[in-house]
Amino acid sequence: MRSRAAGSGRPLAGWVVVDKPSGESSRATLDRVGRTLRTAGFNTKTGHAGTLDPLATGVLVVAVGDATRLVEYVQRMPKTYVATILLGASSDTDDADGHIVAVDAPRVPSMSELEAALATQVGVIEQAPPGYSAVKIEGRRAYDLARSGAAVAPSPRPVEIHEIVPLDYAWPRVEIRVECGSGTYIRSIARDLGAALGCGGYIATLRRTRIGVFDLDAAIDPRGLAIDGLLAALRPTVDGLGAMPRVPLDHVQIALVRQGRALDPHRLPLGDANPGELALVESGGALVAIADWPDRDQSVLPRKVLAAAESPARRPLPEMPD
After folding, report:
1. Cα–Cα distance between 303 and 282 in angstroms, integer?
2. How far apart are CA 76 and CA 291, in angstroms?
3. In 131-226, where does DSSP find H-type helix?
4. DSSP sequence for 217-230
5. The pLDDT of residue 134
6. Do 176 and 166 meet the contact criterion of CB atoms below 8 Å apart?
7. Of 60, 197, 283, 299, which one is least surrounded by beta carbons within 10 A?
8. Residue 227 CB neighbours (<10 A)
9. Nearest 5 degrees, angle CA 58-CA 241-CA 243?
10. Could you give the domains of the chain?
């Protein structure tokens, strides 16, 4: 194998939106991306922002390089799902991958009853995660306890569900769109809907269509992924910060930030930004650091300083075997 072509020496970083296939874990999908990078000679870290169940498909945001340090910001972004719920039965996993038990002679709710039951789950609510979930109970994952045969009942916790829209209903199938905050389980919505209607319910299909600024329109298929397609899909690291104010720096200020030095806010083009977190960027928009600005008259303090960003379009691709 010929050696990798010499590049700028600057690290590869950014976000890749992939369309996770059904039937494989989020980890397995992440590994596909990692293998593609390693095979092409890019030895860089990867991670993902927000696990999807094996049954689910759709948006999985993969962090590359220094973007792995910013996963928490993507995880906070609102998410959109489209789900199919089957009424008239229940599942021990609250989805079609579990053991399904039909309800004898289930009542068939009306559309108005369905809408009313869904409305009770909108807002800031207390939601109990599924028994088969990654939440920890006394230091152990709930799914590990459930698989060992233990009775598992995770405690409810607050989540925010912005909207649940019924898209279609023809007994026993209900299709909904959900917009929600982090930590929400769509399986729990199906389970609780079935309980409220007195007929049982579980998730048959689930597709995540958006996480914040990352949506399916930009998603690539991770199966058979080639390096040129992956690099073409790589989005700037700063995209993972959503609406955080961007503050451009000159070369002197960039050097100070890379030394961990504080900046005088009166010498920065802060515009109408309010004190809080700031994204410090190069003139071309590449992220340099995330900083804290405690108050208008206090210094801007670099908190997460990233390695110099690069554009993969300018970086010579590694040479592959003949």
Report:
1. 16
2. 18
3. 142-147, 186-197
4. GG-B--TT--HHHH
5. 66
6. yes
7. 283
8. 17
9. 105
10. 79-211 (3.30.2350.10), 244-305 (2.30.130.10)
Whether the Cβ atoms of residue 258 and residue 305 lie closer than 8 Å to each other: yes
* Structure token digits, residue 274: 């309010």
The CA-to-CA distance between both ends of the chain, in Å, stands at 8
176 burial (CB, 10 Å; 0-12 / 13-18 / 19+) is buried
Instruction: Return the bridge partners of 277, or none.
Output: 292
Which position has the token pair 């009775």?
A: 151
CB atoms within 10 A of CB 292: 16
Which residue shows structure tokens 């920890």? 136
Catalytic residue among 53, 94, 192, 239: 53
Residue type, 73: Y
∠ Cα 206 211 217 (to 5°) = 80
| pLDDT on residue 154 | 77
Q: What burial class does residue 168 get, using C-beta atoms within 10 Å of its C-beta: 0-12 exposed, 13-18 middle, 19+ buried? A: exposed
CB 29 within 8 A of CB 51: no
C-alpha to C-alpha distance for 48 and 307, rounded to whole angstroms: 19
Tokens of 251: 């070369």
pLDDT score for 131: 75
- The amino acid that residue 213 corresponds to is V
Helix spans in 161-279 (H): 186-197, 227-233, 251-258
Phi-psi region of 102 (alpha: psi -120 to 50; beta: other; left: phi over 0): beta
pLDDT tens-digit profile of 164-221?
A: 999 999 999 999 999 999 999 999 999 999 999 999 999 999 999 999 999 999 999 9
Tokens of 122: 């909108």
Given a cut of 50, the residues of the chain with pLDDT beneath it are: 1-9, 309-322
Strand pairing partners for 163?
Answer: 179
Give the other-Cβ count within 10 Å of 86's Cβ.
Answer: 22
66 is catalytic: no
Condensed to tens digits (0 to 9), the pLDDT of residues 223-240 reads 999 999 999 999 999 999
